[in-house]
Design a protein that fits this description.
- By secondary structure, this protein is of the alpha+beta class.
- The chain contains three helices and five strands; from the N terminus they run ββββαααβ.
- It has a single domain, classed as Shew3726-like (Double Stranded RNA Binding Domain), CATH 3.30.160.
- The protein is globular and about 35 Å long.
- It starts with a strand and ends with a strand.
- This is DUF1488 domain-containing protein.
Length: about 90
């Protein structure tokens, strides 16, 4: 687990965009983050079709997601609006 980046519990499924939105906290800053369904399926090794399983899959790979967010922050891979897209 990365202590510099904390992924909040405010995640929610955006079915129209096929992604989960969540907030990462870094140095007192809140960063809007998004992970695409296909990436989450790849990371979890599951085929995901309903919101409950999607959220459970996110939780099962939360620490890996924190690491990905940390890498993107270190490399300053922010979208023009300041968000991170995984």
């Amino acid at each position: 687990m990365n202590q510099d980046i904390i992924v909040g519990d405010d995640l929610y499924w955006q079915p129209e965009l096929q992604r989960i939105a969540f907030t990462a906290h870094w140095q007192g800053r809140q960063i809007p983050c998004f992970i695409a369904l296909h990436r989450l399926e790849h990371m979890s090794g599951q085929s995901l079709s309903d919101e409950a399983n999607i959220i459970l899959a996110f939780e099962s790979v939360r620490f890996d997601i924190e690491e990905l967010v940390s890498l993107q922050v270190e490399e300053e891979v922010f979208a023009p609006d300041g968000s991170l897209y995984l």
